[in-house]
Amino acid sequence: MKKKLLALAVLGSLAAPVFAQSNVQIYGVADAYMRYGQLMGDDLMSVHDGGIAGSRLGFRGEEDLGNGLKAVFLLEEGYDISTGKSAYMSGTDSAANSGSDVFTRQAYVGLKGSFGQVSLGRQYAPGYFADPYDAFMGGTVGPMADLTTFGGLTIQPASLARWNNSVAYNGTFQSVSIAAIYSAGNKETEMAGSSGYDASDDDKYGVSLKYDNGPLKLGAIYQGVKFKSRFSGGSYIDSPADRDETQQDWLIGAAYNFGVATVMGLYQKGSDVFGRSDLDVDFWQLGAVVPVGPGNIRLAYGQEKIDTPSGPDYKPKSFTLGYTQDLSKRTAVYVGYHYTDYDDMPWGTALGYGFVAGANGHSTTTPENMDSTSFAYVGMIHRF
């Protein structure tokens, strides 16, 4: 018996350094809110996911390799708290995936050290992290999340800024942070009979430079997404015939904490959106966060200009007024009102250019216009 105890003690002492070098965490977000009003003119009453942050379950860890070098990994699954199902991450990358939607928020492995971090997998593009300049932190109730998603801009806190088959770099050096990413897209091989298509025709790339020092935050982001129409069997596949350009997006943002309030703003532009020549989208937003008692009043106004290749321009606008209050370090409640006016864009125009995925029963052959979105909301978020 003593020999067995001694052997176990020796094994335990040998294993201890291995466990000490390795660290794995389970983390997540549970965020749900009730909303009541109208969505693009249709009556709305529902429990929805992610008013402040999308619900998720994740696993992350690192191993100390010595000499300041660490191996890291992250696997993150999104889920819809209103149904309990895995969240389908809409957008070109997720739509091209086969299989389940597990870990479609992020999934990567990499190395980090004093030089920063280099990682491989499905990852956030730099444009996902524009939340320092948004009073609603990229939440779905804010104007930025609403209008950038509607306008097809890839610099946004949602699925268009999650890229498959990518290599990314992130580094922070005192007050300056740098990020860069290259994605091979979803078509990595050049198949026989592809009619001039090559594997680089859906590549993506992006860079960002940020400054964060005391009350001041500044940032600039650029992203490019290639589109290529492929002709086969007498028709175009992958995308319509007129989607053959590289969408180019850029953003500048700033925020300053005056003590009594934090004021922030951003401007971004997308050229050849969805790969359509001369379909350009501009978006700007101003906002503020004002501490009041135990919580914060948040307000933001944003406006978009959609410059279509033919026909009139449209200027959707959005406004949100909200209040958030922390109940603890991990739990908060929020309430507010959100409004978006689509500037009488016809349903046929919105569907034809890709601004909506479906007409939701509305006519696209007659000049039926999109009505506004207007709803009150109340919700709760818990981080674990």
TrEMBL record:
The keyword Secreted does not apply. It is found in: Cell outer membrane. It comes from the Bacteria. Its main location: membrane. Residues 7-344 form the Porin domain. It is a multi-pass membrane protein. GO terms for biological process: monoatomic ion transport. CDD domains: gram_neg_porins. GO terms for cellular component: cell outer membrane; pore complex. This is Outer membrane protein (Porin). Homotrimer. PANTHER family: MAJOR OUTER MEMBRANE PROTEIN P.IA, PROTEIN YDDL-RELATED. Keywords: Cell outer membrane, Ion transport, Membrane, Porin, Signal, Transmembrane, Transmembrane beta strand, Transport. Residues 1-20 form the signal peptide. Transmembrane segments: none annotated. One of its GO terms (molecular function) is porin activity. Pfam families: Porin_4.
